[in-house]
Amino acid sequence: MKAPQEQYAIGAALIEALEPIIDVCLTAGITSLQFEKILRATFVARAFVKLPKHPKTGRPPTANKVAFATGLSWKDISKVRSAPRSNVAKKLLTAREQPSKSARVIEGWLKDPAFLTSGGHPSDLPIKRLGKQRSFKDLVAKHAPATPWGTLLKELTRRGHVQVLNGEIVRFKRATVQRGGMTPAAVADASQKVKRLADNLFQGLQDPNAANLYEESEPLKLTEQQVALLRPQLERRIKAFLKSVENEFRANEDAAPDERREFGVSVYSWKDE
User: Fold this and answer.
1) What are the residues whose beta carbons fall under 8 Å from the beta carbon of 272, sequence distance 6 or more?
2) Can you say whether residue 71 is alpha, beta or left, with left for phi > 0 and alpha for psi between -120 and 50 degrees?
3) How far is the C-alpha of 50 from the C-alpha of 52, rounded, in Å?
4) Pairing of strands 169-172, 162-165
């Protein structure tokens, strides 16, 4: 086991690996509390897979051993272990918890008669009250008291819930978060690719003799315009390279034994922020 100081340093070094995942959460409207629940459940499920099995029986580690390794209670371990993995995220994200301020305001706008049209739809609201007409500030004051309305308006706009017209009128757009192409299926596909890359890099740290491959070019200084001009040519070369590698693999695929596993090569680009 690593010394506490080294454990903390390694944990801090993982921050950069977590940042892209947090970016996805911020875009999708997943809160820190929700993500922490998913992380905790995944931590436990992974511990049952990766911790040493019983030397004689080959059974998975006990809940007590997992509790010790993860720092959670035995009861917490049992709850996570009893839930099917496919349902963990869904159950955690839909678990009863205090609705966020944004959620309370959206719900109030959808249900409170004071902020609905005669047809039962969310009214366009002036930011500040005009005569007797209810305002966005009134909506926030009623459904999320003591919340800075300006900050909340910016967050609702960022998530695509509302649109501000002429800097004066707030129009309701949608109750769900606007995610662009960030669908569950697309995120699942990207997550699988991230896992492959992370497994490659971190397995190399744990086992210097691992068969994984990783090569990277030296950093280059280019403008966005230069990258845009070079991209079509790079894409053609990369596709040709991957196709040649795939053909070499397929020449040996039929001769592989029954215990063969999937193997592939990926090429990606990156740029600093």
Assistant:
1) 219
2) left
3) 6
4) antiparallel
Q: What is the pLDDT of residues 13-31, one digit of tens each?
A: 999 999 999 999 988 888 8
* Sequence-separated (6 or more) residues with CB below 8 Å from residue 160: 173, 174, 177, 178
Residue 87: the pLDDT is 55
Radius of gyration of the chain (CA): 25
84-106 pLDDT per residue, tens: 554 555 555 454 456 778 889 99
- 177 burial level (CB within 10 Å; 0-12, 13-18, 19+): middle
Cβ atoms of 43 and 28 within 8 Å: the answer is no
Residue partners of 229: CB distance under 8 A and separation at least 6: none
What is the Cα–Cα distance from 30 to 160, expressed in whole angstroms?
14
Residue 73 in contact with residue 112, Cβ under 8 Å? no
Query: Cβ distance 95 to 37 under 8 Å?
Result: yes
